[in-house]
Write a structure and sequence with these properties.
Layout: H1 7-16, E1 18-20, E2 23-25, H2 29-36, H3 40-49, H4 52-102, H5 111-132, H6 141-145, H7 150-164, H8 168-180
Antiparallel strand pairs: 1-2
Helix pairs in contact: 1-4, 2-3, 4-5
């Protein structure tokens, strides 16, 4: 008595593939014919008639799409976590800069240098925060100031300091000390 050929199992192995050493493997018709001890020409005929190759491609594409989608989701989750941490870092940096700004004493001969450094730090924190939120940061302070002359920078410095030091005599005294102070 001739044994019945397990066509459903053969088709499943061909179209869906089999797990081998932890990997998905798609056996050939020749390999399946040998495994099930059936005639290759009969298997080929049935495979073409039922269009197994198209089914295999469709299933393979679906599996590939699911893998890609899962990878995208994992990368996206990591990106969101990274952006949140960057935003929190920007907030912390901004808080520390505020503390530094509040610690500048009136009459400090290095006040303008400290203010400039804090200002650059604030700009970096803002850019970091904007990047974390998906916004493009505006042009940097350096790009705006590189075209200024020394006189323009001096006027800008006086303008900035006058906001923090309302007493004109004290402001003048600080500016004179700063102009004569050695670089730190």
């Amino acid at each position: 008595m001739k044994s019945k050929i397990p066509w459903d199992d053969i088709k499943k192995e061909y179209t869906i593939g089999i797990e081998q050493d932890g990997k998905k493997v798609y056996p050939t018709l020749r390999e399946l014919a040998a495994k099930y001890q059936i005639d290759l020409s009969g298997l080929s005929h049935r495979s073409k008639k039922e269009d197994w190759l198209s089914e295999r491609q469709i299933i393979s594409n679906k599996i590939h799409q699911r893998i890609q989608q899962k990878t995208i989701e994992q990368i996206s989750d990591k990106g969101v976590d990274f952006d949140l941490k960057c935003f929190e870092d920007a907030q912390e940096l901004r808080r520390k800069q505020r503390e530094l700004l509040d610690s500048i004493e009136p009459g400090d001969p290095y006040a303008i240098k400290k203010l400039c450094a804090i200002g650059q730090g604030i700009k970096i924190a803002q850019d970091l925060g904007k990047n974390a939120l998906g916004e493009q940061p505006k042009a940097t302070i350096e790009a705006d100031t590189t075209q200024m002359t020394l006189d323009e920078l001096q006027k800008k410095k006086e303008e900035i300091l006058s906001k923090y030091i309302p007493d004109p005599k004290l402001l003048k005294q600080i500016l004179n000390k700063e102009n004569n102070a050695p670089d730190k």
